[in-house]
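Quick sanity check, tRNA-dihydrouridine(20/20a) synthase:
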Amino acid sequence: MSPESTPFSAPAPDPVPAPAPVSATPRLDRRLSVAPMLDWTDRHYRYFARLITRHTLLYTEMVTTGALIHGERARFLRHDPAEHPLALQLGGSDPAQMAECARMGADWGYDELNINVGCPSDRVQSGRFGACLMAEPELVADCVAAMKAAVAIPVTVKTRIGIDERDSYEELAAFTRILQDAGCDALIMHARKAWLKGLSPRENRDVPPLRYDVVHRLKADFLALPMVINGGITTLEQTTEQLAVMDGVMIGREAYQNPWLLAAADQAIFGAGTSPPTPHAVLEALVPYIEQRLAEGVPLNAMTRHLLGLFHARPGAKAWRRHLSQQAHRPGAGVEVLLEAMRRVG
């Protein structure tokens, strides 16, 4: 692990307090964000991540319009005020339904609404959303326009650089221009195209080659449109390099599997004057949150599963993971499991 991604040389600060809510702002700082990841970026992960970084923009898991319109709305939209700045990612393609869900998101206090035009899974394609929508730019634009008309908060799109054989720069530029004209507030570009047939979602995260050059060219041609690059970026050093060209960087799996990557982000990326917290200070601040959720009936392992990578590449990491993995799923497991796991790491 590079020194840039795990800077621990600063003196340990005072224990980190519970995160304070950050006021919603119409102009979000997008220099660094954590990608929306299904089953990973739930509210428990986001609260934990916010204890590590105060300024990094966080995203929910993708929520479909059907789940919000016909399902248990609170289950998908509830979040702690401390999670801000926070964006809600929506999956859908019906402009009226997207507008309805946009109003829900705004009413629940989200700072941004993001449209998923990047997921390549068969299930998502069958629902007519995700990456397959790159073939229907006018429909995506209609969704953007309908959402913009319904809410005052930013509406953004997360997409790929192409799909299947439709991967020419000219088609990508035309797609971008249509979204810009519809009022899209920012474009998040996964710098790989998606193969909709023949590759699994997992393979689509690795097999198509990264084309940072395509995203950089797109940004140069659309200077007025805020643009964030995503895909294969794993360190704050790489983030800083990309920010010389792009308006923002989105990190995905690395920010989840090695969450301490984010500890230096407030200083290194956002210029904050505070020193990073220590991992133990973060965990101590997390205890009251876990106790509150346990009292509501949330099982311990639903929260601690997000903590396994906290001590990535540090002494005691294996003992930490083993204790949480073996004990947190047991019936009645409480915060004492977390405290005991903390004692197993230096």
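Posting the structure with no commentary besides this: Confidence is low (pLDDT under 50) at residues 1-26.
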